[in-house]
UniProtKB/TrEMBL annotation:
<dbReference type="InterPro" id="IPR027417">
    <property type="entry name" value="P-loop_NTPase"/>
</dbReference>
<dbReference type="GO" id="GO:0005524">
    <property type="term" value="F:ATP binding"/>
</dbReference>
<keyword id="KW-0813">Transport</keyword>
<dbReference type="InterPro" id="IPR052156">
    <property type="entry name" value="BCAA_Transport_ATP-bd_LivF"/>
</dbReference>
<protein>
    <submittedName>
        <fullName>ABC transporter ATP-binding protein</fullName>
    </submittedName>
</protein>
<dbReference type="InterPro" id="IPR017871">
    <property type="entry name" value="ABC_transporter-like_CS"/>
</dbReference>
<comment type="similarity">
    <text>Belongs to the ABC transporter superfamily.</text>
</comment>
<dbReference type="InterPro" id="IPR032823">
    <property type="entry name" value="BCA_ABC_TP_C"/>
</dbReference>
<keyword id="KW-0067">ATP-binding</keyword>
<feature type="domain" description="ABC transporter">
    <location>
        <begin position="2"/>
        <end position="237"/>
    </location>
</feature>
<dbReference type="Pfam" id="PF00005">
    <property type="entry name" value="ABC_tran"/>
</dbReference>
<dbReference type="Pfam" id="PF12399">
    <property type="entry name" value="BCA_ABC_TP_C"/>
</dbReference>
<keyword id="KW-0547">Nucleotide-binding</keyword>
<dbReference type="InterPro" id="IPR003593">
    <property type="entry name" value="AAA+_ATPase"/>
</dbReference>
<dbReference type="InterPro" id="IPR003439">
    <property type="entry name" value="ABC_transporter-like_ATP-bd"/>
</dbReference>
<keyword id="KW-0029">Amino-acid transport</keyword>
Length: 238
């Protein structure tokens, strides 16, 4: 579904990715873990077209998409829920969600009614968002904003979702709620690449995992294999 091949990328003169490769098979959850600054967010930004790689390929459904605009890649089925959530604070919860469907549905008459089934699905997944749908997104709690960011990504009916640190800055009980949602999306067959500091939780939900160190994949395997690896135990699960 999503294949990253030998990606090299960076910011100006500073190279961050030095040949990153990974694969997310349809219907699976893949976890990408690693220390701060290893290049996980950069990997996601290259996958979704926010950053152009100097070298390497991004294949979505077998088709190369590296070099295309982020909006084009989004239309082809990749949704990115960025680190730090980035909801549109002054807009209502519902308008934030509708923005997620904006690229998929042409903006003529009936946009709202055509997006209604998707809104319903997101509200079923996150009843709290339904209660607060007229509220400005900026006034939501951190956990609610995270749910909104995931909900907005879902509105695009993506084939693959990239979730960057969905637990960041959240209280433990809210983190559990976010992971319950990820598990439920997985049960519905959603394909996801998950970047997470909270390695234990990520490995519990993932089918396959990669550990990134200094811009390269250092270790990969099933969660069970990684959980037995002394390097992973010492650095991420200790
Ligand atoms: P974290 O877990 O802390 O989010 P990460 O693995 O996601 O880390 P990246 O955010 O990909 O790491 O950052 C990798 C490196 O690239 C870091 O050294 C960071 O300082 C640098 N970097 C990230 N964004 C920029 C930018 N816009 N301009 C310059 N350097 C950047």
């Amino acid at each position: 579904m999503l294949v990253l091949e030998d990606l090299h990328a960076g910011y100006g003169l500073s190279a961050v990715l030095h040949g990153t490769s990974l694969e997310v098979k349809p219907g699976t959850v893949v976890a990408l873990i690693g220390a701060n600054g290893a290049g996980k967010t950069t990997t996601m930004r290259v996958a979704s077209g926010l950053l152009r790689p100097a070298r390497g390929r991004v294949l979505l459904d077998g088709k190369p998409v590296q070099g295309l605009d982020a909006s084009r890649i989004a239309r082809l089925g990749l949704a990115h829920s960025p680190e730090g959530r980035k909801v549109f604070g002054p807009l209502s919860v519902e308008d934030n969600l509708l923005l997620g469907a904006y690229r998929r549905l042409p903006r003529f008459l009936g946009f709202r009614s055509r997006a209604a089934p998707d809104l319903d699905r997101v509200y079923d997944l996150f009843p709290r968002l339904r209660e607060r749908r007229r509220q400005a997104a900026g006034t939501l709690s951190g956990g609610e904003q995270q749910m909104l960011a995931i909900g907005r990504a879902l509105m695009a009916r993506p084939k693959v979702m990239l979730l960057d640190e969905p637990s960041m800055g959240l209280a433990p009980v809210i983190v559990q709620e976010v992971f319950r949602t990820i598990r439920r999306l997985k049960e519905e067959g959603m394909t996801m690449l998950l970047v997470e500091q909270f390695a234990k939780a990520a490995l519990e939900v993932a089918d396959h995992a990669y550990v990134m160190e200094r811009g390269r994949i250092a270790i990969e395997g099933t969660p069970a294999e990684l959980a037995r690896d002394p390097r992973v135990l010492a650095a991420y699960l200790g």
